[in-house]
Amino acid sequence: MVKFSKELEAQLIPGWENAFVNYRRLKKHVKQIKFSSNPKPKKHSSPSFDLAGILFMSSENHVTVPVRINFDCMQVIKRRIISHGETEEEEEEDEEENSNRDLIHLFTLEDEVQLFFQGLDDELQKVNKFYDAKEAEFIERGDLLNTHLQILIHLKTLVEKNTRPTDRSDVLGVLEKNGVTGVTYWVKKRDKKIALRTETIWGELLNDGEFINRKKIQCAEKMIRNSYVELYKGLSLLRTYSCLNSKAFKKILKKYDKVSHGEAGKKYVSEVRRSSFVTSDKAVRLMDQVEALFTHHFANGDRKKAFKFLRPQRRRAADHSHILTFFVGLFTGSFIALFFAYALLAHIRGMLFSPRQIRYYTEIVYPIFSMMALFSLHLFVYGCNILMWKKTRINHSYIFEFDLNTALRYGDVFLICTCLMSSIVGAMALHLFFVSTATFSPHMADLIPAILLLVYVLILICPFNIFYRSTRFYFLRLMRNIIFSPLYKVSMVDFFMADQLTSQV
């Protein structure tokens, strides 16, 4: 059974770790209380010896029966009778020391209990303060998004009704009607620049061209939709934060009652239940409001479709983990076997090659295969990064804005990497065999790297839903954004990918 402290640490929300209950510190206080409430056992004094009690024993029939004792036993009895007087004096001193020790333990216990409840008050105040601040922040974001949504609805209606392209003045009228202010942009009118303030979303919309068309409205709609999704995720995390902290308080107070044999913990639990992070329902009501608005405006009333955005279900790792493990092991073994076969073949054939053939192979053919191998090496390192990010609880999917339904796991990356490396080493061994054999012409051997590269390109652009289609198309979009960066908006993942590519220069 997993301890609650480890369970709590495993479920901590990244970035909010310091705002959670310090369960370990409170648990240490409970252990100190347990130690203080159980003082060290008293020293047992040597029992006073009664010669009659030693010489005679009481039987079950209450008849005093004499007991035979040998000479050695008599000597022990004599020595203990002599030391009996000294033992009585030691007993009085021990009783005085034990009474003093009991007083010390009593005061220590009171101090530990006081520290424990002081720590509880501090933790409860910290949790309430953080929860109230986050709740107010999300409510403010929700009101702002509702304003943006109303503007979007008005603009969509305006664009649909007007036959001519909607210009900036029409959009400004809608913005001023809704009281939007925020980002400065410039409009030339009568050779004067007039600074107008509007929100970031609409500022970008207005600055990009003279007219507003459907494409720009769709772009703004996508931004607002993603903002609603992020708001809903934040509210879900806030609910998780509330549940975990409430459970932590109940667990630690239950431990305290068990140690102290009292009911003070139960009384404090009632205080926790009256706290704002437990009783407040503003976050829940805002979640219901977001669900209703999102379903109506972004999913055409389809609640199931709306929840695919709001609550994306990540595919379970256990569904295909055994298949992934099998194929990763299979291709890894194939790669190792083919690599040793290639090394052995290169050693044998290298002694038969002329210097011209060796130069041709190392300067022309080998760089082509090494370029493909370098791509596989990048994939392997990326898989290691995902593995370490998972172990250190870094939410890379959130940082790079990956879709949880299609984001690659480290097992998927290792599978692609081992498959590519096996095919590359196999093609290298086959090419070396063709070159060193007189049966095949050199031109046929030179087609092998070209065929391999062509197969990779065809798989990359394959439109069918096989071989991780969503990931392949996402990679193509990344490369497009990097190559034509002045023409496309780049994000964090584009910078990350470009940095990986420039590191090879």
TrEMBL record:
Recorded coiled-coil stretches: none
UniProt GO BP: cellular response to phosphate starvation
Domain SPX: 2-270
Keyword Chloroplast: no
Topology term for the membrane: Multi-pass membrane protein
Pfam families per UniProt: EXS, SPX
Subcellular location: Membrane
TM regions (residue ranges): 323-344, 364-389, 410-435, 447-468
Keyword entries, A-Z: Membrane, Transmembrane, Transmembrane helix
GO CC annotations, alphabetized: membrane
Family of the protein in this entry: Belongs to the SYG1 (TC 2.A.94) family.
Protein name per its UniProtKB record: SPX domain-containing protein
Organism: Genlisea aurea
